[in-house]
Design goal:
Layout (H helix, E strand, L loop, with lengths): L27 E5 L4 E6 L2 E6 L5 H16 L4 E5 L11 H18 L3 E4 L1 H9 L15 H16 L8 H17 L9 H4 L17
Parallel strand pairs: 1-4, 4-5
Antiparallel strand pairs: 1-2, 2-3
Length: 212
Amino acid sequence: MTTQTLFDQTPAAGLTPRPAAVTHRPLVIALDVAIGTTGVAGEGWTDHVHTTAATLHGRFQQQLDGIVSFIRHADKVVIEGAAFSKARLQGMDQLAAMRWMVRHELWRRGIPYAIVPPDNRTIYATGKARWKDEATGTKLTATQVKGMVRDAVRDRYGVDCTGRWRYDEADAYVLLAMAYDHLGMPLADVPATHSRAVAGCDWSDFTPAVAR
């Protein structure tokens, strides 16, 4: 099966060509990669990979094995990138290693992948990366913002992420929606205040068609 993607040949100056409608809807899998619990999403569903191994290397392997079970038939994969503002926190080097192991596995399998920064994911879901309480002006916590993202996934796409890993799964679903939006096949109508987040992501390896 072949997916054929068409591009504008003469975009306006300074603009990056975006793919036109494709002849076949590719199978995209989204990953909110983590060492403990990775959120996973495909069109209409979410899941997760949770590790229980006692050692770091054991958790790495459990994550890779679980992730491969979801991506082995994918045409394309979209991954959440690093939050560089947190690069000095303890454990970020291990998380970076986990993300790169996943990228290497995708490269080894010939599966194109895209990288979405965390702020872009939040903007696509809620319209802004930073939120404050309207009454007090107090900055919302990360958990409160993740709750907004989860609610947006339920309300906009009809996918209700529940359970302990609901925020990881909701984050993955937003990544998925962004990928299909980039491909010209949005899963739902999204306001321009939100869809602006599609720009600024790394789609460079994601756009080429993949034959399966």
